[in-house]
């Protein structure tokens, strides 16, 4: 990294088309990832048979604050112990496992759509969007056993980080901590970020001068943007629910999420990027 607040540009991460849309600072990359419900993780399960796989997952960027932390942000992904991405041999050249596991390379992408952009010609139609891509090395945080636990502080911290994606405060309002069978059946993949970048389009309609000079087309074809807003609905209790009223942390999350979604991400002073950091930054 060039400094504490930006990822170094590399051949993997550099934005080549529309370079003006590229961002490499931590705040923008992390805000996009941490406001996107689903990220897509790309990897090669078997280097001997290099067929890539892409999986939709919940992924969050955070910096583990506990003992043994290197203070660097990482991407945390969780899944079931038998899932292909969480097997000890996945992505490794050798099946021999040891305490010095170097992990395997992954690429993770997250995208949010803000507007549907309708121009005079199909060629100039587009989205206003925010996207971020991370390249890094994934390793398993092995939990060990009850008698000989491993990585438990970081595991539980990562589980809380990911659980609270559903609703902030959800972890503390559930039956926790997880029991030993739950820990044994769950795996956390920690991706150390090697390089990352974000790309943001917030320019709305961009028509060609030749089309704007065509008065008949301008009169006939509506142009503009359609805001793409993702909102949360009214919480619906499960058949087995035993709590009379929806807890305040849930109703507050729904209210806060919907207010942010409807706020209009393009502001006159700072533009989309500054608004994204303000609304969704961690």
UniProtKB/TrEMBL annotation:
Stored InterPro entries: Pyridox_Oxase-rel, Split_barrel_FMN-bd
Cited SUPFAM superfamilies: FMN-binding split barrel (SSF50475)
Record protein name field: Flavin-nucleotide-binding protein
Organism: Coniella lustricola
